[in-house]
Amino acid sequence: MYNNFSYLKEYFGYVPQDDLLFDNLTV
User: 3-state DSSP: the chain helix, strand, coil percent, rounded to 5?
Assistant: First the structure.
């Protein structure tokens, strides 16, 4: 899961609404 997190953050790092992504991932 950690790998995906890093990958997502790097891939969606440019996304300003990454907070929503984190929320979805956390849930």
Answer: 70, 0, 30
pLDDT digits (tens, 9 = 90+) for 1-27: 556 667 777 766 655 555 665 666 555
Q: Are 26 and 1 in contact (CB under 8 A)?
A: no
Domains of the chain, residue spans: 1-27
CA torsion 11-16-19-24 (nearest 10°) is -50
Name the CA radius of gyration of the chain, rounded: 8
